[in-house]
Design goal:
alpha+beta, Ribosomal Protein S5, domain 2, Four Helix Bundle (Hemerythrin (Met), subunit A), nine-stranded mixed sheet, five-stranded mixed sheet, 36% helix, nucleotide-binding, ATP-dependent protein folding chaperone
């Protein structure tokens, strides 16, 4: 056994620092492996940097980092072939907690190198080892091997350490963790592999973990067909040169699609993407993909991965990416995003805000570019990208101002218009007596078909707003568009949707109107239904059931999370208007029916037809309607 050169006390300010590190500094114990591999990458990148600066003239050789474990000995080892440490450097960097070797290295070579490849920042990462280990051993040999022998450092998680000479032929550092009883879950091949793939998938130095079986060609058989055999190959966990680190000029569409499949193996191809590459006033790289979004927001969120110098940090990026772009997929990488000391949580500052604003601007620029470049293709994609655009216009004033140039209205006939185009289209027919524009819309083409047709008969156009955000989007548009209101096509009769000076004369006398109203009120017998007699075109339906635009919109807003007044109004009982078309021939038939029972049956039949058109006729009422229909035609 080597002679102990020195014993001492780790330099810390309080005896309680270890319990804090072990239990509270890192929220997730699996982080220890991320930190150790990141340190190994740092050591390797430092050596490459010194070589590029002429400070190291030896052979770099194979720089692959290796992670291994021994279940019987209960150890996990992380080995690198990087810069290594002398005994004095071990004392300096390991014994002085929170003394960051990376920070000192960058400072030392700041005039010769930008240090952008160095990950470490706080100097605490190594000590995360003690969350899972009873003892940690470091064996390190400096790249200055001719001058210094290797050093061994040992610590059992107390403030006591030992430092001695060691035998190590190769340059670099081995960190050996003796796993404690509570953490034996980490002594599992697939557990370690999963952690490495999560945090280290794109680190810039190859990382080996065990081997894998690979099928290789092995000659031909008697018929000349190729034969294959299985060989053990090194399992390299990571892709050291992920797509976002490359220049967009050297990439093709298939490269972006391939990388998307690497990130999300079971997803549909994205619609398009944005490659971010900023170096001033902050550093930001990455690729953001526009996926085909389903209506379930929560399923689609948290798909953007945040990295810092290719080390995975989190997929909780709500402070970096504006909320409406949380539905995007992809990768962001920035060393300028402030993290807490454990690198586990984002901390808000001016850089985060600038990055968020930049991402918003780039998304707006990309959408505008697509619109101008190929409008037909943009229209084809609109149904998928509209949720991003509408969400952004609702929540971000600046994005609204950019997006209003390319945002689209789609009508029930699947035609697309910009805001300005649509205004000019409907202005002649859909301007009311007070010079206000009225935009009509449907939220369900099937259920509201009869109302859509009634509007079209009056030469009105009907937009389609059937998305999860559309009730909020309509409210935003009413605040932004001058002298413009929106009405759902089934919120009133066609004659009343757009109030004009025109008036249709009623064929009924006042007494007849009162009689018809009484007949229908008795037949309906429902206090939530308010009956009125209207003068409409004879070809319109005999009965319309509507909910006021105000009440229905309140209820729609409440469904998608509107609080306050929306929640209060949304919980109120449903109230409907029943509009009787006094000019329809069936009303005369009801008035001239032989007896009160026949009048009531005909009125109930007309009313049930209106319910049926709104998909509101169910249960016993539907059964009675069918029986009554058979009786009336037999």
């Amino acid at each position: 056994m080597a002679e102990t050169l020195e014993k001492g006390t780790i330099s810390i300010h309080t005896e309680n620092i270890f319990p804090i590190i072990k239990k509270f500094l890192y929220s997730d114990h699996e982080i220890f492996l991320r930190e150790l591999v990141s340190n190994a990458v740092d050591a390797t990148q430092k050596l490459k940097k010194l070589a590029s600066l002429g400070e190291f003239n030896g052979e770099l050789g194979d720089l692959t980092i290796e992670v291994s474990f021994d279940k019987d000995k209960k150890t996990i080892t992380v080995s690198d072939k990087g810069i290594g440490m002398t005994a004095d450097e071990v004392k300096k960097y390991i014994n002085q907690i929170a003394f960051s070797g990376a920070a000192e290295f960058v400072e030392k070579f700041k005039d010769k190198a930008d240090g952008k490849d160095i990950i470490g920042k706080f100097g605490l990462g190594f000590y995360s080892s003690f969350m899972v280990a009873d003892k940690v051993e470091i064996i390190s040999r400096s790249f200055k091997a001719a001058e210094h022998e290797a050093a061994r450092w040992e610590c059992d998680g107390s403030t006591e350490f030992s430092l001695s000479a060691a035998s190590k032929a190769a340059r670099g550092t081995d960190v050996i963790l003796y796993i404690n009883q509570e953490s034996e879950e980490f002594l599992d091949e697939w557990r370690i592999k999963g952690i490495l793939e999560k945090y280290c998938k794109f680190l810039p130095v190859p990382i080996k973990f065990g081997t894998k079986d690979e099928s290789v060609e092995d000659g031909t058989d008697a018929e000349g067909k190729p034969k294959f055999k299985t060989e053990k190959k090194d399992r390299i966990i990571n892709n050291p040169e992920p797509l976002w680190t490359k220049s967009p000029n050297e990439l093709k569409d298939e490269d972006y699609l391939k990388f998307y499949k690497e990130l999300y193996p079971f997803s549909e191809d994205p619609l398009f993407w944005i490659h971010l590459n900023v170096d001033y006033p902050f550093t930001l790289t990455g690729v953001l993909y526009f996926p085909k979004v389903k209506n379930d927001f929560e399923v689609n969120k948290n798909k953007i991965q945040l990295y810092s110098r290719q080390v995975f940090i989190t997929d909780e990026v709500k402070d970096v990416v504006p909320d409406f772009l949380m539905l995007l997929h992809g990768v962001l990488d920035s060393p300028d995003i402030p993290l807490n000391v454990s690198r586990s949580y984002l901390q808000s500052d001016a850089n985060v805000k600038k990055i968020s604003q930049h991402i918003t601007k780039k998304v707006g620029d990309k959408l505008q570019e697509l619109f101008k470049k190929d409008r037909k293709d943009f229209e084809k994609k609109w149904n998928d990208i509209s949720i991003f655009v509408k969400y952004g216009m609702i929540s971000d004033e600046k994005f609204y101002d950019r997006a209003k140039e390319f945002a689209m209205f789609r009508n029930v006939d699947d035609q697309h218009f910009t805001f300005e185009e649509y205004k000019e289209k409907v202005k002649p027919t859909q301007t009311d007596k007070d010079e206000n524009l009225t935009y009509l819309y449907a939220s369900d083409k099937g259920k509201q078909h009869a109302f859509i047709e009634a509007a079209k008969n009056k030469s009105y156009d009907v937009l389609l707003f059937d998305g999860v955000l559309d009730s909020h989007f309509i409210n935003t548009l009413e605040q932004k568009l001058e002298k413009t209101q929106f009405k759902r096509v089934d919120s009133d009769t066609a004659d009343k949707l757009i109030v004009k000076d025109e008036k249709v004369e009623s064929v009924l006398s006042k007494d007849d109107e009162q009689a018809v109203k009484s007949i229908f009120e008795k037949a309906i017998n429902n206090k939530s239904m308010t009956v009125s007699i209207e003068a409409m075109a004879p070809q319109d339906l005999p009965v319309f059931i509507t909910m006021s635009e105000f009440m229905r919109r309140m209820k729609d807003m409440a469904k998608v999370g509107g609080g306050g007044a929306y929640g209060f109004m949304g919980n109120m009982p449903d109230a409907y208007n029943v509009s009787i078309n006094g000019n329809h021939p069936i009303i005369q038939k009801i008035l001239s029916a032989a007896d009160e029972d026949q009048k009531s049956r005909l009125a109930k039949q007309a009313y049930d037809l209106a319910l049926l058109s709104q998909n509101m006729l169910t249960g016993q009422d539907l059964t009675n309607f069918i029986k009554r229909s058979v009786d009336l035609v037999s």
